[in-house]
Batch of 2 targets.
Target 1
Amino acid sequence: MSRLTHPIHDFRYKGGELYCEGVPVASIIRKTGTPAYIYSHQTLVGHYRKIAAAFKSLDPVICFAMKANGNLAVLRALAREGAGFDIVSGGELRKARMIGADMQKVAFASVGKTEEEILLAIRAGILLFNVESVPELVNINRLAGKMRKTVRVALRINPDIDAPTHEKINTGSLRKKFGIDLKTARGIFLDRKAYPSLCINGIHIHIGSQITRGEPFVAAIRKALAFMDDLALKGVVIEYLDIGGGLGIIYKDEAPQTALEYARKVMPLLKGRALQLVMEPGRFIVGNAGIFVTRKLYTKDNGLKKFMIVDAGMNDLVRPSMYGAHHEIIPVVKSAARKIVCDVVGPVCESADVFAHDREVADIKDGALLALLSAGAYGYAMASNYNARPRAVEVMVKGTRWDVIRARETFRDLVRGSFIPEYLK
Ligand code: LLP
């Protein structure tokens, strides 16, 4: 099955033109210019619904990992579907509040929460703090006490499982900064009375991202459950199990588990247990729901290699540079042009500013458009202003309508908040 007829998203060629749902991508770009992120509303909510349906019988709290895509319209669309949010900063908490999220569906992870962020979250009345160290636990207890509140806490345990994924997005081993080792976590649970302002009754795991097979998840959950059972013998009751995110998606030719297959593996493990399931998918929900559109500027051939130079760079989409990630690159208008093998590169002054190495692409005309697929997760979210490049525009398509959901940044945005001291004037 061709990549574009696979039902993982709503970007398709019709009559040789790439459409997002009912809208030709080129018609959007004529108004917005490039580079541009374009999201399909239908793909977005469709993926949320797949997870919700697969796990329905357990009535989980599905907290979309906002770090994958923090666009307010994306968040709002998911909140309307009933999603909660996994947040990692005060900024994300404020975004959740801004789009009217149900705070009783918000979980706050992060290895280093500041006092200000903790206070903000206590005041907001979130569902769960996912705590990753003893000093942080002490801090949250102190601040909750001051505010005369009791705060629900899950300990993020580090199950010491090495999931097969990219080194930089593998989090479940003790060589990584994440979570609390089992021995320390056990000590905390047994000593939980030392934290009178906390209700420590949850366990959180997140072993990494873009994990395409079920086994590592199952192994981590089994480890968490065994840990729980051991605690139960000591009278410690765990009521919340947050199994994190990490579900892999198709970028190229991966064959990741579907939501249903994932549920079929996970649900039997939880059967008969009085546990509230929490999950934190990010990429699975939004990854295939977005494309990134750039314009070809020039081609050059240095005798050894060919380079296709486009008007977007690693500042716009860093995944290929940072993780060697693969994004399919296709012309927005199908081209009869012969194919060439080239590096598709941006204008940023770094050798790493490469979207694809030695890739076969259509030798489209200068000025023609290319789409990088599966760019909805960790795309715009990781964009920067490196090389004084304003961030791209974001667009959402729903059926035959489309809306700008975040304006392209301007030069003013780039210099906002900068000052030249008197002595330099
Ligand atoms: N929960 C926690 C605690 C996390 O740290 C993450 C992702 C998630 C949930 C969501 O994981 P997902 O379902 O999206 O895999 N920038 C990298 C990915 C970094 C993931 C960080 N944590 C990339 O572009 O591949």
Target 2
Amino acid sequence: MKPIYVTQPTLPPLEEFLPYLEKIWDNKILTNGGEFHQQLEQVLCEYLGVKHLSLFTNGTIALITALQALRITGEVITTPYSFVATAHSLLWNGIKPVFVDIDPITLNLDPAKIEAAITPQTTAIMPVHCYGYPCDVERIQQIADNYNLKVIYDAAHAFGVQDKSGGGILNYGDLSVLSFHATKVFNTFEGGAIICPDEKTKRRIDHLKNFGFVDEVTVVAAGINGKMSEINAAFGLLQLKGIDEALGQRKKIDARYREGLKNIAGIRCTNIGEHVANYAYFPIFVEQNRDALYEKLKANGIFGRRYFYPLISDFPMYRALPSAAAANLPVAQKISHEVICLPMYPNLTNEEIDFIISLIIDFSVT
Ligand code: T4K
């Protein structure tokens, strides 16, 4: 059997991409805000129900730029339970991350614990909609308003996620950052975006991702090269055509896993309410011997991943921070020692899902 990875990109038929390539070859505009780049920004705004969106070369550069755009300094409160890029974006800006524990249900920053971590140096909160599960956006905003803090959401997993009333989750906070990496629900091979509510901020972000250039002779900031190329943008336009079908397929896979894994001793699935999810990942929590199950799956060609183990706060560049102490992060520590993300992508077959479930059942009875 071929290996089954935790994620796998959905690729449209190759021949459907050829007309886009021909156009790029004809125009000879390969990057720097070409036709496909402009089109993708527009259609993504419509699809996601957001006002302004600026495409980036990847999610990490977008996070780094988002912090620059709002001139964030000092300390930023964030979660240890995420991909390491979240906190790295702070270090790249000379900002001190302050880790706060997560909620055991949503697996996102626990709003009840944020206030205690605020100091006179705190300028912002950077929560993550982990696995695409929405943060408690209202409570986070309330705290931010009370303490005059900015909120930048790392929404790398949250493409198309809705809030409780059906609005886009990306409309909360000052900025939200998406990743369009190959492993994501919507991908452009590599890519990302910053979502912002107003024209002025969008202009600043657009300048920052283009070295700070406003026109041929004017540079207004020490910008970076964060531009998405025409090939990536063209692929995004093609991908978007199949996104609803892909999301529907993910939902079915999620349901099949849940049905197959219910009532298995020592194995827990998440429980956040299905109306808000985009089924980006399928984490399970193994009460005992998580690594033994992880290895058993691997031995059978199933390459699940322990997203997110180790915690960011346990990596060498963070672990000396007072907020990184294990005693400060008991929920995140526990979850990170129990989690395995099972394969989740639209082309996963029922037979493959059932095989994975059978391996887990077999593990639980031995
Ligand atoms: N914030 C959060 C919360 C994030 O999760 C991420 C990225 C970021 C920020 C940063 O966004 P980007 O700068 O990446 O746009 C993967 C992804 O590379 C990373 O984008 C993602 N989060 C993270 C959760 O997962 P790895 O190191 O686990 O990737 P890798 O190469 O081991 O891929 C996982 C599996 O996917 C492989 O076993 C095989 C499969 N795969 C992978 C690639 C690259 C494919 O089938 N095709 C492919 O092209 O980080």
